[in-house]
């Protein structure tokens, strides 16, 4: 029993509830959100350290014993993701202060923002498959509101599509849980895992595994279910986009990882090969999109798809090197994607356009912005010693060890093309002739630059300080590789 | 009984799919409502349709019902209630703002329109 | 838009109280029998919607000057307070406490912190449903 696990969910929830009372006091809203966010980071740090020293923590909510009630479980994987989530959301929050606009701040932007964090942190920490659905819905509900807040035409249009896609996938989630329940008769994830290995995963469970892949794949934007993403993510303002890009798809990836390493690892010849094929196709489609577009937002959005493919490829290989690489890369990607979106957002705020053909020469007047972007771009592509490198090396190493040479090669080639796609922004947007832009003076560049600089420094530290961080990551990977650790921690308390 | 329920669920899904494929936004919303109804009924069916006493200590009944599917359905109903309500508000706003409820006319992903 | 619906308006004045009372009964019955905060809240919201159908939105907000968003917030705080209170007693989150006391006239009554949690749910449900309906209704 450890109530620390609930705090990353409870603190944003409390902040959101308090903020509902202060709809018009914007300064108070900002301060309370920021304080809540910092408190969540501190709690998450404690949680990571606690899990590192004492092993997997679990909390039986409402004192109901473990397979009967809802259990929250915090293994290293989820603790690290909660920490990253808190940091990313904090930086997006700071960025919002000067860029989201009075109109949205007056219409419950900060409460909804906090509810989104509740959903994401909850999805990462729950140990109950139906509770995962509930936290997904909390997260999605907030994302609908964040997407539509402001009510411009494009936002309304895209929100409808986004909502429809997610309503269908939620219904499918419920259906899948119902099927799973009818076969294993339990909802506790550890208990499901134990029961699945008792009956040795007959064919029907492989079908359910594929259904889960569809449900979470829709959220995580894998091939061929990514179709909604480029359109929907194009609509909201930058801080919301950064939050979605960094967190929401990663919740889908986390859920795929959890279900495919904890439940359905007995029939890897079918399920994991399928996952691998889809992951490789996802990388290819993402790279094609990233290269093809001349819209800066779209380029980064397609880079999300590439990253999802790379991470899932690592998971599908099913060996400890690849797991370590995937977890490392997942955290790296959350940090660096948020940084890139925020940086691109500053460029859009200065130039007033997201079309790469209409911007140039930004580095001359904004050297800080230009060089931060340059480092972020290198980190994304995985240039040593920045953080993308180690993750990719481990994934490729794992891929070779698991004899998936094609996938490993695709991951390697994709890095080059990813580098090309982000360098395209650098060369066209930041180099070239200096231009004057209409609303240049209005953009509070100095303030906006704080968040991405924090994230890029973090990413550099994460890359250079790998020696110190790797024990934590490998602890997370061990849990994924050996489900019995997770089962024992939850069921035998 | 389970077979009959499965058929009902199938009919609900079929109707939902048909409605969601239509162009009118309102029909699509009704379709999503039917889809979630089908999903809820499926949970109940999958949990096994049994008659029995409430699963409490001291009832001393011969058979007990499984309370879990009912709890799940209640949660799922609450969630789909919220989502449907939000969807209706969104559809109404979109209709006022875009001047159409035809999903065909909401095509396109470009931002500069 | 003032409708001239005498029958509905007259009937509502009686029916409203019956529905609200029944919803309160349902709310407390939820302690041991079917019922509870969610259903009770929905029923109250239903009664208020009936009122909105009979009269227009301005009249209703004059009779019942609630800010439903604040109501949602209060409900959330109730729910968080009772569930987070468990942390201070060093038992798992959401663990509830209960006891029995004897009151002079009513006899033995069981008290349960879950009721306060349910009250929070009730307020949230009423608040959210009414907020949604008001958002659509205010446009006209």
Helix and strand topology:
The complex is a heterotrimer of chains A (493), B (113) and C (140).
Chain A: H1 7-20, H2 26-54, E1 57-60, E2 71-74, H3 76-99, H4 102-106, H5 109-125, H6 129-148, H7 153-184, H8 189-199, H9 203-220, H10 229-234, H11 238-262, H12 268-292, H13 296-317, H14 320-351, H15 362-365, H16 367-381, H17 387-401, H18 405-430, H19 445-464, H20 466-481, H21 483-491
Antiparallel strand pairs in A: 1-2
Chain B: H1 2-20, H2 25-46, H3 67-98
Chain C: H1 6-29, H2 37-54, H3 57-63, H4 68-88, E1 98-103, E2 107-112, H5 113-137
Antiparallel strand pairs in C: 1-2
Helix pairs in contact in C: 1-2, 2-5, 4-5
Would you kindly provide a written description of the structure presented here, covering whatever features stand out?
The complex is a heterotrimer of chains A (493), B (113) and C (140). Helices cover 78% and strands 2% of the residues of chain A. Chain A has 21 helices and two strands. Chain B has one domain: Helix Hairpins (Orthogonal Bundle). Chain B is 65% helix and 0% strand. In chain B, α1 (2-20) runs antiparallel to α2 and α2 (25-46) runs antiparallel to α3. With 140 residues, chain C is mainly α. Chain C has helices at 6-29, 37-54, 57-63, 68-88, 113-137; strands at residues 98-103, 107-112. A two-stranded antiparallel ribbon of chain C has the order 1-2. Chain C is globular and about 60 Å long. In chain C, β1 and β2 (107-112) form a beta hairpin. Chain C has five helices and two strands; from the N terminus they run ααααββα. The mean pLDDT of chain C is 85. Classes of the chains: A mainly alpha (493), B mainly alpha (113), C mainly alpha (140). Chain C: It holds the Pfam family MnhB. Chain C: One of its GO terms (cellular component) is plasma membrane. Chain C: Residues 7-131 form the Na+/H+ antiporter MnhB subunit-related protein domain. Chain C: It comes from Robertmurraya siralis.
């Amino acid at each position: 029993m450890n109530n620390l696990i609930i705090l990353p969910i409870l603190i944003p929830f409390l902040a959101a509830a308090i903020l509902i009372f202060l709809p018009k006091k914007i300064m108070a809203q900002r301060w309370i959100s920021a304080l809540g966010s910092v408190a969540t980071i501190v709690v998450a740090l404690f949680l990571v350290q606690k899990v590192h020293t004492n092993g997997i923590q679990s909390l039986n909510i409402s004192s109901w014993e473990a397979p009967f009630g809802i259990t929250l479980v915090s293994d290293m994987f989820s603790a690290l993701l909660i920490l990253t989530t808190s940091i990313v959301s904090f930086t997006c929050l700071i960025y919002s202060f000067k860029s989201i606009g009075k109109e949205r701040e007056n219409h419950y932007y900060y409460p909804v923002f906090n509810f989104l964090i509740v959903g994401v942190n909850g999805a990462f920490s729950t140990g109950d498959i139906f509770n995962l659905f509930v936290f997904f819905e909390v997260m999605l509900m907030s994302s609908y509101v964040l997407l539509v807040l402001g009510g411009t035409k494009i936002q309304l249009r895209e929100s409808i599509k986004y909502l429809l896609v997610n309503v269908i996938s939620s219904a499918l989630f419920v259906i899948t849980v119902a099927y799973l329940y009818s076969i294993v008769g339990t909802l506790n994830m550890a208990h499901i895992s134990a029961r699945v290995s008792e009956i040795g995963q007959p064919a029907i469970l492989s079908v359910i595994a594929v259904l889960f892949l569809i449900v979470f794949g829709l959220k995580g934007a894998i091939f061929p279910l990514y179709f909604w993403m480029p359109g929907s993510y194009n609509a909201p303002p930058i801080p919301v986009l950064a939050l979605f890009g960094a967190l929401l798809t990663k919740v889908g990836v986390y859920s795929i990882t959890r279900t495919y390493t904890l439940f359905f690892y007995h029939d890897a010849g079918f399920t994991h090969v399928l996952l691998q094929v889809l992951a490789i196709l996802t990388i290819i489609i993402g790279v094609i999109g990233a290269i093809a577009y001349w819209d800066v937002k779209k380029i980064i959005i397609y880079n999300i798809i590439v990253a999802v493919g790379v991470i899932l490829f690592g998971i599908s290989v099913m060996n400890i090197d690849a797991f370590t690489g995937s977890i490392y890369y997942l955290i790296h990607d959350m940090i660096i994607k948020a940084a890139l979106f925020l940086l691109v957002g500053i460029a859009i705020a200065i130039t007033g356009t997201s079309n790469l053909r209409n911007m140039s020469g930004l580095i001359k007047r904004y050297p800080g912005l230009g060089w931060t972007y340059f480092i972020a771009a290198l980190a994304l592509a995985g240039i040593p010693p920045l953080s993308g490198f180690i993750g990719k090396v481990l994934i490729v190493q794992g891929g070779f060890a698991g004899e998936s040479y094609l996938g490993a090669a695709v991951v390697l080639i994709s890095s080059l093309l990813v580098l090309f796609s982000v360098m395209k922004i650098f060369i066209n947007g930041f180099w070239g002739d200096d231009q004057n832009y209409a609303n240049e003076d209005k953009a509070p560049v100095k303030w906006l630059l704080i968040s991405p600089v924090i994230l890029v420094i973090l990413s550099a530290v994460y890359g250079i300080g790998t020696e110190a961080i790797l024990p934590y990551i490998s602890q997370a990977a061990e849990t994924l590789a050996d489900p019995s650790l997770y089962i024992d921690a939850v069921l035998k308390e | 009984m389970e077979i009959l329920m499965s058929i009902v669920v199938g009919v609900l899904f079929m109707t939902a799919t048909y409605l969601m494929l239509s162009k009118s936004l309102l029909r699509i919303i009704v379709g999503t409502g039917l889809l979630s109804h089908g999903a809820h009924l499926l949970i109940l069916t999958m949990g096994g349709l049994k008659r029995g006493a409430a699963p409490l200590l001291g009832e001393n009944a011969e058979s007990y019902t499984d309370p879990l599917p009912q709890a799940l359905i209640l949660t799922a109903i609450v969630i789909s209630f919220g989502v449907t309500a939000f969807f209706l508000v969104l559809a109404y706003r979109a209709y006022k703002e875009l001047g159409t409820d035809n999903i065909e006319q909401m095509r396109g992903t470009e931002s500069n329109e | 838009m003032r409708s001239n619906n005498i029958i509905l308006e007259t009937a509502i004045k009686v029916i409203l109280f019956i529905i609200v009372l029944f919803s309160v009964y349902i709310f407390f019955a939820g302690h041991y029998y079917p019922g509870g905060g969610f259903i009770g809240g929905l029923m109250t919201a239903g009664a208020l919607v009936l009122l909105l159908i009979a009269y227009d939105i301005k009249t209703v907000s004059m009779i019942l000057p609630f800010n439903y968003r604040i109501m949602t917030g209060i409900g959330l705080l109730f729910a968080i307070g009772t569930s987070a209170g468990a942390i201070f007693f060093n038992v798992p989150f959401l663990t509830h406490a209960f006891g029995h006391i004897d009151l002079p006239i009513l006899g033995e009554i069981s008290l349960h912190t879950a009721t306060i949690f349910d009250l929070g749910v009730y307020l949230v449900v009423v608040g959210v449903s009414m907020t949604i309906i008001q958002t659509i209704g205010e446009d006209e």
